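Anyone opening a protein record will find just a pair of labelled lines. A complete record is shown below as an example:
=====
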Amino acid sequence: MFQKIRTTHVGSLPRPEALLKANNMRAAGEISDAELEETLKGAVDAVVKKQQDIGIDIVNDGEYGHITSGAVDYGAWWNYSFSRLGGLTLTDEDRWAKDDVIRSTPGHIRLTTFKDRRDRRKFEAAYTDPDNGVLMGRNRVPNPAFTGPVTYVGQELVQRDIRLLKEAMAKYGIETGFMAAISPGAAARLDDNYYHDEDALLDAVADAMHEEYKAITDAGLIVQLDAPDFAEAWDQINPEPTLEDYRAWLQKRVNAANRALQGIDPEMVRLHICWGSWHGPHTTDIPFADIVDLCLQVHAKYFSFESESPRHQHEWKLWKEVTLPEHNVIVPGFISHSTNVVEHPDLIADHIVRFAEVVGPERVIASSDCGLGGRLHEQIAWAKLESLVEGAKRATERLNA
């Protein structure tokens, strides 16, 4: 008999209005850094307590520290890195408005723009219909470019985030926490006007991000590498590449992740893979089976991935064929960020049990598909997490019966 199916989530949680307002006021020079941090401290304390009250076992700060890195409302999971990496220069270009035609050739993969993604082109009428329910509008986003040597300049910010999370965990007697950080490959998805060399840029970003990963793990927190570039990028390549070319491209990102993790205990590392969190069609997603072996090369104990999405729910069966290395624990998603429907606890329990029966219940942690903050109304997001905890409880009872 094992103790229980533990629960966690991917990172981003509903964003408090007070924190968003304070961040905007700081950007306008209306309040000081100290006043912003005081608001942030209260928000982190509250979100940690909320997770504990619901019954989440492995908690985080909701990624609230990333919100205060100049990344409100448009992808804090990625844009927070703009204030953590040196060597970047902001341009006047709006990232979401870029419509460059960027084409890959055999043996040479290049990522195209958001507007030129294959699913975006395939469903162009849906994306341009304001009443269709597809997530469309985003605030104008400055588009940085690498214009000098990449360095890590976020030491004070990451230490602030660590301190606030650990203070809240200590206050409420919580033992295990995690903090999300962007993967080297995802951080490097900007125009390169300095290195003009893919390998050199990946190495430089990996070395810079190593400082953030090490700071997090040295503090006793699990670092989660957010690596949607592993899977999401497939849709961002025009025309569709060969699987051989894509795997070669992905191998470089895997190598960069491991370079960034050098000297860090894999027991303190979680890798998160998803196919993109926006509310839109995902018919061009690469099958998980085509890349799972490469993903498992990353020096991480915990392996987080989408499994509740209707495009990937069937892929639980691949674990009947793929041998999970002895040191790995899987962290599948059992609640979706891309639908307002709140999953029933019995459905969640069913899905947990089928994974547990394949890899063993002690090697399954129940999670979300992706971040919930900025994707769902706060009432819906928290209801999903409550359902996740209840589903894990029911699965535990069934597995121990």
Observations:
- The two ends are 9 Å apart (CA to CA).
- The chain has 13 helices and ten strands.
- The chain has a mean pLDDT of 92.
